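Hey, quick one: can you model this chain's 3D structure?
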Amino acid sequence: MEGLDDAAIEAMLQSMVEQRRQNITRCEESARLDFAVQEADEIAILERFLPAKLGPEETSHAVTQAIRETGATSLKDTGRVMASLKSRHNGQMDFKRAKKLVCTLLH
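Sure thing. Here's the predicted structure for all 107 residues.
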């Protein structure tokens, strides 16, 4: 029997973290703060098995470098820049935030 590869395990852990973040929102909306705390504790445990996330400065540097390396000059190049970032920083970067930064810098 074959096991899951690292990418599949990472994707599964990311999904589990996202589910718990959604649960925290629901718990807070229904004033079940005890369950929200439990979900946050579980997120902390799951994140120990995931690659470290890049901070804002590291993300900014990576975006700037990807723009320079891909030769991007306008918003139409956003997809190429994002593909470069995803190939280098998959699981390490908040790609929603990165895309906003790419769009801001290329605008």
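One thing worth noting: The mean pLDDT is 91.
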